[in-house]
Amino acid sequence: MLFELRDVSLARGDRLVLDSVGAEIHRGATAIVGPSGSGKSTLLRLLNRLADPDAGTISYQGKPLTEYDPLALRREVSLVPQLPALLEGTVDSNLRYAAGLAGKELDAARCLQHAGLDPGFGSRDVGKLSVGEQQRAMLARALAQDPQVLLLDEPTSALDHDARDAIEATLGSLRAELDISLILVSHDPEQARRLAERAVRLKAGRVVACGSLAEALA
Amino acid sequence: MSPSISVSLGQVAAALALVALAVAISFWRRTDLERDIVVATVRSFVQLTAIGYAIKLIFEADTIWLVVALLSVRVLFGALTARSRAKKVPGAFWPLLIGLAIAAASTLGLVVALGIFEATPRYLVPVGGMMIGNAMTASAVALNRLGDEVTESRAAIEATLALGATAREAAAPFVRRALRSGTITLVDSTKTTGLIFFPGTMVGMLLAGAEPTDAVRLQLILLYLLLGSTAIAALVATGLAYRNFFTPAQQLREPD
Q1: Superfamily of domain A3-83+147-216
Q2: Is residue B130 less than 8 Å (CB to CB) from chain A?
Q3: Which of B46, B92, B243, B246 fits B167 for a cystine, CB–CB 3.0-4.6 Å?
Q4: In this structure, is residue B17 part of a structural domain?
Q5: Residues B143-188: pLDDT tens digits?
Q6: Which of B155, B164, B254 sits opposite A81 (nearest CB)?
Q7: Any chain A CB within 8 A of the CB of B160?
Q8: C-beta atoms of A50 and B251 within 8 A
Q9: Distance of alpha carbon A14 from alpha carbon B156, whole angstroms
Q10: Residue B1's pLDDT is what?
Q11: Last residue of a domain, one of B22, B37, B61
Q12: CA-CA distance, A183 to A44, in Å (whole number)?
């Protein structure tokens, strides 16, 4: 098992964003689905300790998350946020930065190819990319750290139909080529069906279903 | 240096004619500033007269401890004033207080150690006040900018943290911009000094009958000290304050 969540709660002000969440997330591809405001993105951010819950425990590979060094954890469990936020400079300089943080040798062409970009893309200035291209560059940057798990927050929400299909195809081939687990947040159950084998369904901060797609999205 | 000149209260009162002119312009052009001009005039009279007597006492007592006490109070009020300009920075008071204290202590320590000024109240009180005042403005501007930058760039900072960068690495571009904006005003005004305006110390010395070369040299010393003290204060304040945006687990804190 990859992640196990027990009685996880988190409040923002007076609002309970996550309410006694319990879930098991296995290797492979898991979708976290639910309407907006149901706590999906918040849950994702807890998995690489961009935030900590107020109560409850989360373990990763059998060990409580709090026992991991947060920096090392984030390089192994890499989060790609909903809105692209690259550092100023070229795509290559972003990839180098990420690989450098993780202490990995950078194979830029390979990372770009896995993200569906050709090698010439590396020299492009990030300020001149479309949102779809930035989203792919964010994916390539995360891959430059050679992570075990990719956390994807609504990876296609800012994109049109064609760009969405292209990113989904990229994620599909990524899984076929790399030994990597995906946990993706989506408000769209159809996307979950296309990309994942398992799902966690949230509603108003509570888990209403967790398991295979058939069970969770019934 | 030339002997100091004395100014009578009558001369000060005569200068009020210009204040009356400012009030008249405000009334005539309806800028609605008459009351503020009068308040500013009265406050400046009361505050400067009070500080004048306080300095006179300190000069006569001629003890370094009174100087330290006066400058400490100025550092404290400087930090409180600057904090009100840095509302978006959590816990801004301590970084500001430490920044101002280090800037004042290091610049004054250096001028005494290098033999530029004697360690007497006559030099340390006015120079210290000038250093603290400018350092306060620079660090307030820097922290104000830091608060705006971090608030507007939460997504970018979290995206960098998500790669396993430390808080220091994720905040670095914003800290750099904040530091730059805190120090650039004085750098720019130093570039144009003498061309567009005469700085206050030089004006004061010329009016008091000093040789122009002495006035210029003293002014240059003060300008260089100011560049140093504002840079130190802004560096320390931003270098400490950015940490308050993050938790020990390198997470960006939720805004209040």
Answers
A1: P-loop containing nucleotide triphosphate hydrolases (3.40.50.300)
A2: no
A3: B246
A4: yes
A5: 999 999 999 999 999 999 999 999 999 999 999 999 999 999 899 9
A6: B155
A7: yes
A8: yes
A9: 27
A10: 42
A11: B61
A12: 8
